[in-house]
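step 3/5: co-fold with zinc ion
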Amino acid sequence: MSSALIIIDMQNDFCCVGALAVKDGEKIIEPINGAQEEFDTIILTQDWHPKEHSSFASNNSAEVYSNIEMDYGPQILWPDHCIKGSVGANFHKNLNTNNSDLILRKGCNPKIDSYSAFFENDKNTTTGLEGYLVKKEIKRLYLCGLAFDYCVFYSALNGVNLGFDMFVFQDLTKAIDLNKSEEIAKKRMIEKGINLFNFI
Ligand code: VGL
Ligand code: ZN
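step 4/5: write tokens
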């Protein structure tokens, strides 16, 4: 059965001094490079927002990390991050991007956030990833990258709901952890039959 490694959002803004830095985010880069050697198909996702993006607290005159109600449901308001074309939106320089088959950008629509690699946060607008995987007959997906409790979590949930076999390399991901989101994500993944295990 064909499988793929999906590396979620290994970008400057989610590492060390980035705008939405995930604690120890940069520590998983080297082991992710190692994991790439085990896969024939490698997909990178890249969070890629216009500066007027509706998920930015600054565009809503609201506090960072507060919650608002969008047309499509609840949305957390983030610091400005991964603005398209900015240094923060670039992949971290230590990430090996030479062997990736597909680079998928998400969060490009100013009105809808997109945590998942499959669907935007309205749960309906596709990124096209499902079609890519189906056409290539890839049925098993291994996830790693940032952040465990947002983009990795929602990608894993959507993937399992679409019928893919989902695996998450727990030691190749790090969480933002807002209001117990790490614990909640882990519990829901286990309930949904997503396989959590360590690469190393
Ligand atoms: C992410 C919050 C906002 C992520 C992206 O990559 O997990 N989190 N945008
Ligand atoms: Zn984002």
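step 5/5: annotate
The pocket of zinc ion (ligand 2) is lined by residues 47, 49, 81-82, 107 (CB under 6 Å).
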